[in-house]
């Protein structure tokens, strides 16, 4: 506690002139207080600003060990806002743990900062109805919430949304694990995170993007589509067309969002990706855990197409062709067969099997430990 207070005083002293940017540049909304950054790899940090602006990014880290506290303040990283209004800087690999502050300075303006940042392993959960089921609805709710104050577990719940274009706004923010935040989080993602945090003994960040009843094509990036689907996407992006005419032409019977504000439905291709996945790309991740739903899909109708395209889209979006993807085995035989086939065909694709919904989180943690950590830290 004393060391934490000293660190806080040092940070306040070092950032005496700091303030949140209102104009020239800012961090992307993925970067918030209490977040986890992926350890052991170069980490992309990005944001938006006035094209041509110089960006200076600093990382101040306090490391606590048996010898007390030491401060690590590396020379700042220098970058520039590109012509599209975006900047990105890749910071050097860091070991798990510590407590850091990211400080952004643009063209000698005031600083903005992201506080209480830790390095650890970051996992993204993507799925539908089963993944959406909250911890408060689980069989072990009382026990889970009683033990939910876990300092090294950080949670990011991405709110349900869809959009015609990739978004910068992130519907969610990082929060520490406590009874209030854990109760409304995905039960599967939360229980997996608790188990991983306990066994790894360093910070774990869990991102949950769940939206029930959504076909795979809505989770895919626009680049995943060609032909008729690409034409449909272009139409809903560029035209305020009459709803009836567009639906008649392309035969869509999806739920209507608005008659004059495309896209019309969360079932349309790429729209969930644009709103819920694009704002966190290209974050560095340890792995993605995908819980597919067996939902009819017009654009990729067969299970093999859906599984293959989802894997391809995820890895492309996060710019990691070897990103591990753990797939929760479906109860649907055709989809399960496609999942198994993909795992046999591709490197770093793993199947998670379990007895029932309440066992999924623990089963996912077990297979993650086996495949990514060689089964170490078993308890």
How many domains would you count in the coordinates?
A: 2
Secondary-structure element order, as H and E? HEEEEEEEEEHHEEHHEHHHHEHEHEH
The SS-based structural class is alpha/beta
Query: N-to-C terminal Cα separation, in Å?
Result: 28 Å
Quickly give the CATH architecture of the largest domain. Answer: 3-Layer(aba) Sandwich
The largest sheet, given as strand count, sense and whether it forms a barrel, is:
12 strands, mixed
How many helix segments?
A: 12
Shape descriptor reads globular
Give the low-confidence spans: 1-23, 253-260
β-strand percent reads 25-35%
Average pLDDT confidence is: 85
Would you state the CATH class of the largest domain? Alpha Beta
Structure in words:
This protein has helices at residues 2-14, 129-132, 141-146, 179-183, 187-200, 216-219, 227-238, 243-250, 271-277, 303-317, 333-345, 360-372; strands spanning 25-27, 36-38, 43-49, 54-65, 68-73, 77-80, 86-91, 97-106, 112-127, 150-158, 174-177, 204-210, 287-291, 325-328, 349-352. A hairpin with a 2-residue loop joins strand 4 (54-65) and strand 5. It folds into two domains: 14-118, Immunoglobulin-like; 120-218 and 266-372, Rossmann fold. Mean pLDDT is 85; it is low at 1-23 and 253-260. The strands form two sheets. Strands 2, 4, 5, 6, 8, 9, 10, 11, 12, 13, 14 and 15 form a twelve-stranded mixed β-sheet that branches. The chain has a three-stranded antiparallel β-sheet with strand order 1-3-7, with no helix packed on it. The protein contains twelve helices and 15 strands. The radius of gyration is 21 Å and the shape is globular. With 379 residues, it is α/β, with parallel strands linked by helices. The protein starts with a helix and ends in a 7-residue tail after the last helix. The relative contact order is 0.13.
